[in-house]
Automatic annotation (TrEMBL):
<dbReference type="Pfam" id="PF04647">
    <property type="entry name" value="AgrB"/>
</dbReference>
<dbReference type="GO" id="GO:0009372">
    <property type="term" value="P:quorum sensing"/>
</dbReference>
<dbReference type="InterPro" id="IPR006741">
    <property type="entry name" value="AgrB"/>
</dbReference>
<dbReference type="GO" id="GO:0016020">
    <property type="term" value="C:membrane"/>
</dbReference>
<dbReference type="GO" id="GO:0006508">
    <property type="term" value="P:proteolysis"/>
</dbReference>
<keyword id="KW-1003">Cell membrane</keyword>
<keyword id="KW-0673">Quorum sensing</keyword>
<keyword id="KW-0812">Transmembrane</keyword>
<feature type="transmembrane region" description="Helical">
    <location>
        <begin position="20"/>
        <end position="36"/>
    </location>
</feature>
<protein>
    <submittedName>
        <fullName>Uncharacterized protein</fullName>
    </submittedName>
</protein>
<feature type="transmembrane region" description="Helical">
    <location>
        <begin position="79"/>
        <end position="98"/>
    </location>
</feature>
<keyword id="KW-1133">Transmembrane helix</keyword>
<dbReference type="GO" id="GO:0008233">
    <property type="term" value="F:peptidase activity"/>
</dbReference>
<keyword id="KW-0472">Membrane</keyword>
<keyword id="KW-0378">Hydrolase</keyword>
<keyword id="KW-0614">Plasmid</keyword>
<keyword id="KW-0645">Protease</keyword>
Amino acid sequence: MCFIKPFIGGYHEDSQLKCFIATLIITTSIIILVTFNNLNLFSIVILNLFSIFSIYNKAPVIDSRFPLTKEHLIKKNKILSVTNSSILFLLTLIFFKIPWVSQTITWTLLIQTLLLFNKYKREDS
């Protein structure tokens, strides 16, 4: 998570306790997915390509609580996020014969990518 999350933005909590609980849930979900799912090479390639494509088109997500306003930083984060996710994809291919490694990387990248799409506007009454 530390290789892409700082650069893609996305889901943020408003307190450290909520952040800890969310991270615990995400980590537990990844462990469960790796334990109970067996991805073949085709699935790993498709999930990783989806993640890279989504990161390329969506990242970095600008959050009002953590604003990123300088254009050169936005561009730098986009380049770093796509580069890092591509490197992680290559690692999943290199370590394909060690399923727990390749699948942990794949599920982590996918879940972090899906958290890019959580933005919604809540209207306070």
